Amino acid sequence: MASLVRLLAPVFVTIACLFSASTSLAALPSKAVSPYVDGLDALNDGRWAEAASAFSRALEASGDDPEIVLARGVAYTLAEDFPPALKELQRAKPVGV
Q1: String of b and e for 24-46 (b: at least 16 CB within 10 Å)?
Q2: What per-residue confidence (pLDDT) applies to 74?
Q3: Which of 29, 83, 88, 95 has the most CB atoms less than 10 A away?
């Protein structure tokens, strides 16, 4: 339970950061922009699993963009899919978030 609390607390801060200062769209490969924006829209609408799927498509096009990795971890967390959420949030650290 304590590890779950440690995982969830920064998630909500991350959500605020994603919406206030999201990845510069100009920095993303053009094929990653549409799925990334779709993922943000899905997060905003509470469609967590759909957001994770959109972020997966964005990552396929962009490689290991740290903000997209983090966004997918947030989406998994909100979808209560904790094993992949933890994996993504831990992966986001070394790639630069």
Answers
A1: eeeebeeebbebbebbbebbeee
A2: 93
A3: 88
